[in-house]
Amino acid sequence: MLSKVLLTTFLLVWGWQAPAAAAEDPLPSWNDTPAKQAIVDFVQRVTDRSGDHFVPPAERIATFDNDGTLWAEQPAYFQLLFAFDRVRAMAGDHPEWRHEEPFKSVLAGDYRSAAASGKEGLVKVLAASHTGMTADDFRSAAKEWLATSEHPTLGRRYADCLYQPQLELLEYLRANGFKTFIVSGGGIDFLRAFAEEAYGIPPEQVVGTSIDATYEFRDGVPVIVKQPSGLFVDDKAGKPVGIYQHIGRRPILAVGNSDGDFQMLEYTTTREGPSLGVLVHHTDAEREFAYDRDSHVGKLDRGLDEAPQRGWVVVDMAKDWSTVFGEAP
Amino acid sequence: MLSKVLLTTFLLVWGWQAPAAAAEDPLPSWNDTPAKQAIVDFVQRVTDRSGDHFVPPAERIATFDNDGTLWAEQPAYFQLLFAFDRVRAMAGDHPEWRHEEPFKSVLAGDYRSAAASGKEGLVKVLAASHTGMTADDFRSAAKEWLATSEHPTLGRRYADCLYQPQLELLEYLRANGFKTFIVSGGGIDFLRAFAEEAYGIPPEQVVGTSIDATYEFRDGVPVIVKQPSGLFVDDKAGKPVGIYQHIGRRPILAVGNSDGDFQMLEYTTTREGPSLGVLVHHTDAEREFAYDRDSHVGKLDRGLDEAPQRGWVVVDMAKDWSTVFGEAP
């Protein structure tokens, strides 16, 4: 009796799953092009226990850049727009800002003049808007801003500027035993404010630009306070370093969209064993933005040149994605 | 027919699991004392969906100190003994060490004199043995050493000096949806050399003392190289900072054994919602070592004083653990 039930159960489970898997496309927002095929082939290869390219689940590390890879990054990094809004929100406590650049320009909404203050001005804005508060307070402010502020041209909240095909890719990878990480030049606390809800990526799987922090008591409660020192920039050659410090092993899949991701893809695709590098190419001025070699944000130049010889997949947003953004609620 | 099979399947699964769960003690190396009861009660409380103290799986973060908490730390931190052995192994390439302290003493096997060179001497030994090489090479060396070198008094390899009750606790927590992390004053690469095999804790869930690293090419291959700068000490107030940087949220359970873990337990047990702090007290001179308030390694003083009022569980190794070490192969 037992064996009969077991057999029935087995057949039942078998019978249920096989057609479902065959019928359902896990990447419906990807057109059936070579880019999609290359990704699916790779996943099938590393998960095939009987093949030569099998990779155990613990080593299936996939790292994703964020700005321009998982969500939009035009007309400027969203985090910078958040910093400007923070300055405006904090201005009541800083009357001196009315006479001090770049704050004066930021308060006047003149972002072009603010940007003209260069790196030094930017550092001032970031220090004022990103340090001195507890990590928890910062994260709440970022969460609130993302959920309520609207993108200037896309007609949706920043929190809804996520690329639908990438959400499907993240889910597809996890369903195949991958562990998905964000490895971004963005600030780690800003990313952690929304990564779990937006991408299903928990805080401990977020690697980003970071600064020093201290353990302090505020109102008798121990908290972490963000400090204006110890800047680690998780970009370019900083990305493999951030991966090493946080993850501790080489990814087998890396996805980016700019030359800031070059070293991450290089580090990934020179590992021993199977690996894949993917670059998202912003070619879709109609549904999103078109930019590459000359862009002030997300410049993609060397990556485009070297992708073919390195075997990296270049995703053409206009051709490879049937949908760019999901429904905005 | 389908519903009948489903019902049978359901009963079968039910019938198999219930008695197994009831009969099997997940913590067989823990005696049935209040310490064990407090831990089991906590786990049941936070996993009980119908109770007031339920914590969603994503927030079930458990952090463990390593030295003296998961494995032994006497007569000295194993990593220091490894550093001494590394110096001996590297001495052929450094003839100058024969005349330079503390290397001279280390090479003579006179660790007492080497230790007398103080923090400055220690930093020299660590810089020589822990930096300049690739992270991969360092990790291989540590792995090799752990698997082959023998503890001076315990009659087993260092790799076998793991506490059996803690291995069971880690497993028990994971079976209850916890994500287990190491948060140690030890070096992050040293820990990552063995944490996965020893504890089932992957590299990305290891937080430790760290130094700067660079992305470089060696023999045409991109690698991570360990640098003698940027020391972050993951101990005392550094532990909550390390947790914030790597994990990004407050643990609900923290386990340590020394005052170096005080702030980690404090940070954990002052969170909103349920939490538990556990301190392992080394009381067993017969099976392991007995030490606390006056120890040069793993000093436990303030923790013992404040544990009762803070509601932290103090594990008495002699009374609460039926076994200390597992079988040495």
Keywords:
homodimer, 329 residues, alpha/beta, two-stranded antiparallel sheet, 14 helices, 9 strands, 42% helix
Question: Any overview of this molecule?
Answer:
Two copies of one chain form a homodimer. In chain A, the strands form two sheets. In chain A, strands 1, 2, 3, 6, 7, 8 and 9 form a seven-stranded mixed beta sheet that branches. A two-stranded antiparallel ribbon of chain A has the order 4-5. The longest helix of chain A is centred in the first third of the chain and has 22 residues, at 2-23. Chain A has 329 residues and is of the alpha/beta class. Chain A has helices at 2-23, 34-47, 78-90, 103-107, 111-116, 118-130, 135-148, 164-175, 188-192, 195-199, 238-246, 262-269, 302-310, 317-320, and strands at residues 61-64, 179-187, 206-209, 213-218, 221-226, 253-256, 276-283, 290-291, 313-316. Residues 4-21 of chain A have low confidence and may be disordered. Chains A and B meet through α1, β4, β5, α11 and α12 of A and α1, β4, β5, α11 and α12 of B.
